[in-house]
Amino acid sequence: MTTNTPHINPNGVEIAPTVLLPGDPLRAKFIAETYLDNVKQFNEVRNMFGFTGEFNGTPVSVMGSGMGMPSIGIYSSELIKFYDVKKVIRVGSCGAMQKHVNLYDVIIGVSASHDSNFMSQYNLPGTWAPTASWKLTAAAIAEAEKQGANYHVGNILSSDIFYNEDDTVNDRWASMGVLGVEMESAALYAIAARHGVDALGIFTASDNLITGERTTAAERQTAFTSMMEIALPLAAI
Ligand code: HPA
């Protein structure tokens, strides 16, 4: 195994074949402490904490991705190219873009539209469609069903812009049936596809950009639990 890369220095701690990627490194710490056994920290470079542990006996790592496609692009590329990671699963929040998506609902992002220049590096003669792994998507749907979660499966938007000058964009993406907006998954899906590994984004709706509803921090915790209970078993498939 590679000893270190520019942004990850595991100091001899193994990184599991499955890595969960919340945006916030302190969220990664919380996930490791709450859900995993035998936890060891494998990264602290730039405070982008990463941990490896076990979930029901299966090795799982969890690491912050940072916000945006450039940041998740760096971490997921190093994990896949240099640490042999085979499944990258983003767990995060998103802004819902449909009236029928309620706050706290889970969204499984089977495909990710985007407004980014990230894909230009692949120099394709058309527009490539960032798509999640079907194996992970099908397994996530099965878990969501098993748990009776309120969930939606569909297209999400990965945007480079959180504070958009153009306040009409949300309605236009929504008119195409986009379920919610976040800032990372299209890049994650592209990098995974390029390297033949599995990627998926699972989200909880933290706010609704169409109705203006917002969650409180305490309420978000419950929704977070549902998303994690769908994501964690995917390590074992
Ligand atoms: N935009 C981008 N990412 C998000 C949002 C949003 O409105 N809400 C939660 N994550």
Automatic annotation (TrEMBL):
NCBIfam families listed in its UniProt record: deoD, PRK05819.1, PRK13374.1
Chain's gene name: deoD
Reaction(s) catalysed by this chain's protein: uridine + phosphate = alpha-D-ribose 1-phosphate + uracil
GO cellular component: a single term: cytosol
Domain called Nucleoside phosphorylase: residue spans: 19-221
InterPro entries linked to this entry: DeoD-type, Nucleoside_phosphorylase_CS, Nucleoside_phosphorylase_d, Nucleoside_phosphorylase_sf
Protein family membership: Belongs to the PNP/UDP phosphorylase family.
Name this polypeptide is given: Uridine phosphorylase
Entry keywords, A to Z: Glycosyltransferase, Transferase
Domain of life, source organism: Bacteria
UniProt EC number: 2.4.2.3
GO biological process, one term: purine nucleoside catabolic process
Molecular functions (GO terms): purine-nucleoside phosphorylase activity; uridine phosphorylase activity
Pfam families per record: PNP_UDP_1 (PF01048)
HAMAP family: Pur_nucleosid_phosp
Keyword Transferase: yes
